[in-house]
Amino acid sequence: NKCISPVLVRNIIVDCVGGDDERNTYIYKIPFQDLCDGYTHSPSIVIDGQNETDETNCNLWPCNNLYTRCNYAWTCPNGIDEIDCNPLSKCYPDGHECVSPTSLEVICLPVHRTGNGVIDCLGSTDERQHCREQNPDNPILRYRCWNSTDCVPSNCHNSNQCPFEQIQSFWNQCQQDQNIARVIFSLLHDIMLGSGIHLNNKYFILDNSTRFTMYTSVTNQIQIDSASSTVDIDTNPSK
Question: What residue ranges do the domains of the chain occupy?
Fold first, then answer.
């Protein structure tokens, strides 16, 4: 290792073995929501001979955690990170809203029936992996046609797509029923996974480090200013 003058950095002349002084790289912070969410947000770097990103070594990082809960996007395959979040939902606190292919009405699906490989809901809102894998760079294409592998836009205006939905006049009903539309449009929250867009970036602070493990029902009680946050530590707890 050697030290070089700042004027020699990125001056088109290689002064370091490997060209480290001429690499136009940058360092940025990744919100905890982006870690192990199924999408790679950081460039690969070599650590101890291994290529590492924000999606490696995820076996010990639970998908349902303080940073992914109740942000509308399903980080877990069964969406358990979005359970017990909206008191106004008819399926609160332990189920997911689902459009039944039989009645074409919004029903409640228990969490043990989501992410299990069996499609129970129109649009495959309970089994989201297929359309994510088919269209990783296009979060709009998340509605899976019934009895099909086709993925179409997650809205109510696919009048010429999905044979079953056309026969059942589902698209018209979706446009007229806001409860159905809400379930279908919920698939669009996938955009927050791949794009790095979040309603509120969450960063780790001591004040809320244990809150997730202490309560089974987690609510967003603390909003952290992503630009600056402070932590007050009592160094004299006996007083």
Answer: 86-194
